């Protein structure tokens, strides 16, 4: 993170805090998507993670 701007690090911390408290799946996934971007993950990796979490959530609903 040494090359990250302070604003990005602050945004990352805020997103993590909000994600941990969020109860709505869609809102949490959007926060997780932003966290992945701030951490430098590729769009493909982020979407794979989002799909995995969504599928897991659906299985617990059945």
Automatic annotation (TrEMBL):
Keyword entries, A-Z: Receptor
UniProt name for this protein: Hemin receptor
Protein source organism: Acinetobacter baumannii
